[in-house]
Design goal:
Layout (H helix, E strand, L loop, with lengths): L1 E10 L2 E10 L2 E4 L10 H4 L6 E7 H17 L3 E7 L8 H14 L7 E5 L1 H13 L6 E5 L2 H7 L4 E6 L2 E8 L4 E4 L9 H18 L1 H16 L10 H22 L19 H4 L9 H18 L5 H14 L10 H14 L6 E4 L5 E4 L4 H15 L25 H14 L43 H12 L30
Parallel strand pairs: 3-10, 4-5, 4-6, 6-7, 7-10
Antiparallel strand pairs: 1-2, 8-9, 11-12
Length: 510
């Protein structure tokens, strides 16, 4: 919620306005947010007597029935907007489909939309709420490690546009975030590992106690889904709960004074200097946690070369990444990509590198005076060091797959069609309103591939045909070698899709 205190004074030739906005929102730790015995979430909607929820289709397949039963138990009418979202569908058409559902539902100005899913869902739905009537409330229920301990902290919401990540967005805080770590019971191990990287990020540069706990319990935490799986010991559950609570608190403590990112020296940007570029370099992109881990490990090498961390600390950091199965290198992280990533982040960070590095573990220094020669020397040193580690520093299950939603499940043609739809969205006017099914009302052409793409990459009954693979490669190259992420934090694939009911894995927990 926001309150604005403002004053107006006369000047010699006009007026001066000065205002201060109060931003207030809450976090609640609650296992079983959709358990009818817990009224916390339902209490937020009693005033309205109904709920519009936005969620990912895979989350709906797992938890949709629980959601329906929960709100039915409290006599609340529930409508669910289901979207199949991945980085390739984090676009204006997906945004507009959510807006259409809000419009059809008849959302009242202060009535909160319920957003359930990983960071991609909360990004797009949050942006829809920011834009709808200029500000509509929403409540977040994150369902992944990254969603719970990283994306939930930020008030940034956005969609991609053209070849640029998070190019269109806003700062829009939810009124409440419910943190239910029992969702991790159905999260694939690869996604647990993916989110583990974010905790290494915050602890390495800001919270030594959390780093020590991660170091002590690394393998157990990943194997037991942060102590939530059946048979997990009480000790690992207690350690995981402390890690999560302290990690979230530390990120909130660091980010709350800078919610609108007026200050660009950001501790939690450790691992986000070069990763926005090299994350997308492989033909199948890296998972976000692996991309930032490469960046963090390389940054640790740079810090070690400068004498900011000792030999023991340096090896301790690298060993933690290795034990977690997180990437510290990949073949295409080379001098060319390092140079392009540096050029891109300098634009994002107002002409300074602002590379966050540990100095020592648990504290942070920002580097601005690093030459290209020093960066390249650090990269050569890093590559040599990686030969001492399993897989030469490459991670386990490091690349996105169907559990990341929206990349490998889609053909190249479908991805291109989605990009094309995003471009066309900018041309829409009042006679070309897009609805939730991807139809442009009034003219009957189908502009979005949501639900209309057939196996050969063509849009059924529509007019968008898949382009050839050569053009696809050009699109990908153009994407790679342009500045990638306006805020320097973006990453492909936050693991939003959980284990799916269709056999890609597991059942929802009771």
């Amino acid at each position: 919620m926001s309150d604005l205190n403002a004053s107006v004074s006369e000047t010699s030739n006009g007026f001066h306005v000065e205002g201060y906005e109060k931003i207030s929102y809450d976090f609640t730790f609650l296992d079983g947010v959709f358990n009818p015995h817990n009224s916390n979430l339902a209490d937020c909607y009693k005033k309205w007597g109904r709920v519009l929820a936005v969620t990912d289709l895979n989350i709906f397949n797992l938890y949709g029935k629980q959601m329906e039963n929960y709100f039915e138990a409290y006599g609340l009418e529930l409508k669910i907007h289901k979207t199949k979202i991945g980085e390739k569908a984090k676009t204006i058409p997906t945004f507009l489909s959510i807006v259409d559902s809000m419009n059809e539902f008849g959302i009242i100005r202060k009535e909160p939309v319920l957003v359930v899913g990983g960071g991609l869902v909360t990004d797009v739905a949050g942006f829809a709420c920011a834009a709808y009537r200029r500000s509509t409330n929403f409540i977040r229920v994150p369902t992944t490690v990254i969603g719970l301990i990283d994306a939930s902290v930020s008030i940034k919401v956005a969609v991609n546009y053209g070849n640029y990540k998070n190019r269109l967005g806003a700062y829009h805080a939810p009124i409440h975030t419910f943190l239910d770590f029992s969702f991790l019971r159905t999260l694939p191990t690869a996604q647990i590992r993916n989110g583990f990287a974010e905790l290494i990020k915050i602890s390495t540069c800001s919270h030594l106690e959390t780093f020590n706990l991660l170091d002590e319990h690394c393998e157990e935490i990943i194997e037991t889904a942060f102590g939530r799986s059946d048979g997990a010991s009480a000790s690992v559950r207690a350690a995981a709960d402390k890690i999560n609570k302290d990690g979230i608190y530390e990120m909130l403590r660091l980010e709350s004074p800078n919610l609108h990112e007026i200050g660009l020296d950001r501790v939690i940007a450790y691992g986000h200097t070069w990763s926005p570029m090299h994350e997308l370099v492989p033909e199948v992109p890296l998972r976000h946690g692996h991309a930032i881990s490469i960046d963090m490990a390389y940054s640790a090498t740079l810090a070690h070369m400068r004498g900011l961390i000792s030999d023991t600390e340096y090896r301790r950091i690298l060993n933690l990444f290795s034990r977690a199965g997180l990437s510290m290198d990949h073949d295409q992280f080379d001098e060319e990509i390092l140079d392009k990533g540096t050029a891109a982040i300098l634009k994002t960070r107002d002409g300074k590198l602002r590379a966050a590095v540990p100095n020592p573990i648990g504290t942070c220094t920002f580097l601005n005076d690093v030459s290209a020669a020093e960066l390249n020397a650090a990269l050569r040193r890093h590559k040599t060091t990686m030969k001492e580690y399993p897989r030469q520093g490459q991670g386990l299950e490091a690349f996105v797959d169907a559990s990341d939603t929206g990349y490998t499940e889609n053909s190249i043609q479908e991805n291109e069609a989605t990009d094309f739809a995003a471009d066309k969205a900018g041309e829409m006017n009042g006679n070309g309103h897009m609805n939730g099914n991807g139809h442009i009302n009034g003219h009957g052409n189908k502009a979005n591939g949501n639900g209309h793409m057939n196996g050969n990459g063509h849009i059924s009954n529509g007019h968008i045909n898949g382009r050839d693979h050569a053009n696809a490669a050009k699109v990908k190259k153009d994407m790679l070698f342009n500045p990638t992420d306006d805020d320097g934090d973006g990453g492909l694939g936050d693991g939003m899709a959980q284990r799916r009911v269709d056999g890609l894995v597991g059942k929802a927990s009771a």
